[in-house]
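Hey, resending since the last one bounced:
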Amino acid sequence: MNSINKTMLFAFLTVSAFLSAQSSPPAPPGGGGGGVGPGAPASPIDMYVYVLGLVAVLLIAYYTKKVQKKLA
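The structure tokens again:
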């Protein structure tokens, strides 16, 4: 039963990731840049990619250590 739950969770997360992805808006006609730039949507999360990666690694290490301590 546990493997079925994990499989269903994986399938749900995979499908929802593809269904909720946003496509970029089409470039305006005539080559105008609009308010953001040359047809590219604003992505403020791009500034924090390295910080988010570091936080993810630290959280993985923390919870791995926590689980290992609990099992010992």
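The longest helix spans residues 49-71.

Sorry for the duplicate.
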